[in-house]
């Protein structure tokens, strides 16, 4: 991979057997956090993105090797990826960006990781399982907040109730969303949601189900959303019925329900442009102080046909900080050879306790109910 700068030496004692990995979208809000976490752990990623000026402004002060690349440039992408072992894709919305990257990984034999939460991307990546196995590469989307903590929680609950047939997961974010997250959310505001029923993905109205959930700080209203776990938890646990809830104030839940009828209007170019201008005028994301004060709260419940159920909760750092921590730890694992060819999930391959390796993450068992009760 050619560049105008030299490699940063990093700390060789902290490096795995290979340290060649590329972060694409490195100058984005989350991409910068990921790169800073890598440097903190003694790794020196190669970095890339579409905008040469933004890339240089991010890379040069950190001493990172960099090369601007467009995802439309298949030859350039292949040339760059052929020189690294792993790519960590951080440029969303992933529904628009993941295909050229994953196809280049398949052509060059490069392991693919990303930080998506979009269920369509997980589903499409799972459909590349055979091709990835044939090439000997691992494809693991969702190595950040989406979906490491929830997937590990799903694996843990399944271990507590192995005959479970219905899984409900939920999360509450204590903190501000980044511009990228809000842009992706706007793209997905179609008035439709998805759950998994009897092993198949099922389209349902937005906010199809609501329930009150205690994420660890008291009861909160939550509504179903089409989150990545409807794909990943299926692959991790094999549970046929899966739904994901997000905590939201009543006004937000009402807006989600209204989108059932206004979804087509929201998706028109005029409305999208107006809403995107408003998003782009907001801060890039939470600052360091806001991240330090934020938390990620997760809840899960698994039930079997006999009426037994178990609950567990997980709490950890603010979502973007957690993303940077889990993503780089998975990069380290892959570079060190801890991988399996094909489509994989974080909890499925690295186990239910993987997320507990991140400082500040705690897991607590909740109530267990039996049919007799």
Report what the structure shows.
The chain has 373 residues and is α/β, with parallel strands linked by helices. It folds into two domains: 12-144 and 322-351, 3-Layer(aba) Sandwich (Rossmann fold); 148-318 and 356-369, Dihydrodipicolinate Reductase, domain 2, CATH 3.30.360.10. 39% of the residues lie in helices and 24% in strands. It has 14 helices and 16 strands. It has helices at 29-40, 52-59, 74-81, 94-108, 119-126, 129-135, 148-160, 179-187, 229-237, 250-266, 269-280, 288-293, 319-335, 346-350; strands spanning 21-24, 46-49, 66-68, 86-89, 111-114, 138-140, 166-174, 192-197, 200-205, 210-214, 219-224, 241-247, 295-303, 309-317, 342-343, 362-369. Helix 1 (29-40) crosses helix 13, helix 7 (148-160) packs parallel to helix 9 and helix 8 (179-187) packs antiparallel against helix 11. The protein is globular and about 60 Å long. The model is unreliable at 1-17 (pLDDT under 50).
